[in-house]
Amino acid sequence: MDFDKFLVNFFLFFFVIYFLGISFLPAFFKKLVASGVVLSLSFLGKEAIQKGLEITVSSFSFSIINSCTGIVSFSIFAGLMAATNWLSLKKKVLYSLLVVPVFLAWNVLRISLSSFTGSYGLFVFLHDSLWVLGTGLILVLYVLAVDNYGK
After folding, report:
1. β-bridge partners, 51
2. What percent of the chain has pLDDT over 90?
3. How many domains in the chain?
4. Apex 66 CA angle, 60 and 68, nearest 5
């Protein structure tokens, strides 16, 4: 498969998965992330108050939105899997399903560490920096899945 075809397949599947995901993403996932953030902050000794999907830490509040669930990371990973033509459909689906809890946990950790700062300015900086680091996680998981295929 040439690189142009790979990119077209990747972006096609990425956008389809992403827009289907944000359109039909169960509220359960957002509630799960919100509860996980509050629980992890409590474990770290930081008080957080949760009202639905809104979390208040120190002097600022933020809401858990679709992007906080890992749907973007999952869409990128699933797009990469779909565009990889030497993997069977079974493997693509299996690997894509296996990463769901990884991306959920990563996002709980990312939001928890970001909100632990107690400052909105630091929150945004750390939140975005950890998201960039998370893209590395996506690539590592993809390489492991593809590398594992040959074994």
Report:
1. 54
2. 58
3. 1
4. 55
Report whether 137 contacts 106 (CB < 8 A). Answer: yes
Burial class of 47 by CB neighbour count within 10 A (0 to 12, 13 to 18, 19+):
exposed
Tell me the C-alpha to C-alpha distance, in Å, between residue 104 and each of 47, 111, 139: 22, 11, 16
What distance in Å separates the CA atoms of residue 112 and residue 39, rounded to the nearest whole number?
A: 9
> In whole angstroms, what is the distance from residue 126 CA to residue 112 CA?
10
Name residues whose C-beta falls within 8 Å of residue 35's C-beta, 6 or more positions apart in sequence: 50
Asked whether residue 150 carries a pLDDT value surpassing 70, the answer given is no
pLDDT bracket for residue 149 (50, 70, 90): low
Distance CA 138, CA 78 (A): 10
Contact 69, 30 (CB under 8 A): yes
The string of pLDDT tens digits covering residues 43-68 is: 988 999 999 999 999 888 999 999 89
